[in-house]
Amino acid sequence: MANYLLTGVAGFIGGALAARLLREGHRVIGVDNLSTGFREAVPEGVEFFEGGCESAATWERIPPLNYAAIYHIAGQSSGEVSFEDPLYDLQTNAQSTLHLLQLACRLNVPQLIYASTMSVYGDQPDRPILEGAPTEPKSFYGVGKLASEHYLRIYAEQFGIKTVALRLFNVYGPGQNLANLKQGMVSIYLAQALQNRHIVIKGAAERFRDFVYIEDVVQAFLAAEEMTQSGYGCFNIATGVRTTVADLVAAIQKALPFESTTEFVSGTPGDQFGITGESSAFTQASGWRVATPLDVGLKRMIAWALSA
Ligand SMILES: NC(=O)c1ccc[n+]([C@@H]2O[C@H](COP(=O)([O-])OP(=O)(O)OC[C@H]3O[C@@H](n4cnc5c(N)ncnc54)[C@H](O)[C@@H]3O)[C@@H](O)[C@H]2O)c1
After folding, report:
1. Is residue 228 part of a domain?
2. Best of 6, 29, 35 to mutate for ligand 1, by most ligand atoms within 8 A of CB?
3. How many folded domains does the chain comprise?
């Protein structure tokens, strides 16, 4: 049994990862400010601390255990919100990361694994991109995540801690927040279909994304922790499969047991037109592979949403 500190434990990805760590018999200290997460979503067995990761006061309350790793998952994750309040985005993302890195050094935690994003890339050519592609974020959200990656890299270089940034592409699956209509393409379209039988799509139908199923993402975090490499690593967590918005919406509509209509309106600022990723570097480093194709994952998510 090992001790883990996990932020964002009341959210979609953090909750799923915490549940998996608990199932494996570990002790999980979880932190969340419940800004987009829910207290009820914190898995039973997590020792929960409500607080903001950007605040030093939160870290003074955390038990100084012998942690095997920190999983830093918390953060606001909407490009749209980052334009509404760039300062808030900076605090919740980059400032929080800095606090967690300081804490890792203070408590001698050997590694920190971070939930970064494909938003660090900005617009890219229409082919799966590798980690060495230029980073030119189009949103303040992407800027904050990219800054966090650089903090991770410098902490690894200067203080000897192992740090890993996982650039998550579009994550979806059971447990995603169907009440948050500003983050998560699959969850936004599905939630609207369920609530109104009408899907409003912000931006063009030809935009495209790379959708990764939640269980594959949880597996990626565990694989990152198990990697024996030291220093800093930065990896895409993607499938390489290109899915247009039109295809995604059609697949959701087809899988639902009722008809729904669609409407296209203008896009949100900072939205990438299209992006897919190549994860061969992470496969080579950790053995991780995508296990769940989109049609299988969508079926599971829709079954969960219909029964919720
Ligand atoms: N879902 C995706 O497709 C995706 C893609 C790329 C990256 N990410 C990153 O993964 C992480 C988790 O995303 P998610 O989809 O689970 O979102 P989520 O909103 O469900 O979970 C985020 C959690 O963090 C908490 N939180 C936010 N700011 C906080 C702060 N300052 N202090 C403490 N808690 C805070 C929220 O209350 C929430 O419970 C985010 O950092 C996000 O940027 C997600």
Report:
1. yes
2. 35
3. 1
**How many angstroms separate the CA atoms of 18 and 48, rounded?**
11
Taking a C-beta distance cutoff of 8 angstroms, is the pair 277, 238 a contact?
A: yes
Would you tell me how many other CB atoms lie within 10 Å of the CB of residue 71?
Answer: 29
CATH number of the domain where residue 141 is located = 3.40.50.720
Residue-by-residue pLDDT tens, the chain, 308 positions: 999 999 999 999 999 999 999 999 999 999 999 999 999 999 999 999 999 999 999 999 999 999 999 999 999 999 999 999 999 999 999 999 999 999 999 999 999 999 999 999 999 888 999 999 999 999 999 999 999 999 999 999 999 999 999 999 999 999 999 998 888 999 999 999 999 999 999 999 999 999 999 999 999 999 999 999 899 999 999 999 999 999 999 999 999 999 999 999 999 888 889 999 999 999 999 999 999 999 999 999 999 999 98
Ligand 1: centre distance to CA 12 (Å): 7
Rg of the chain over Cα atoms, rounded to whole angstroms, equals: 18
| Domain-located, residue 268 | no
Q: Residues lining ligand 1, judged by CB closer than 6 Å? A: 7-8, 10-14, 31-37, 52-54, 73-77, 92, 96, 115, 117, 168, 170-171, 177, 184
Q: Is 144 contained in some domain?
A: yes
Residue nearest to atom 21 of ligand 1 (CA): 11
Residue 90 within a domain = yes
Euclidean distance between CA atoms 28 and 169, whole angstroms? 25
Domain that holds residue 164: 3-172+212-240+276-292
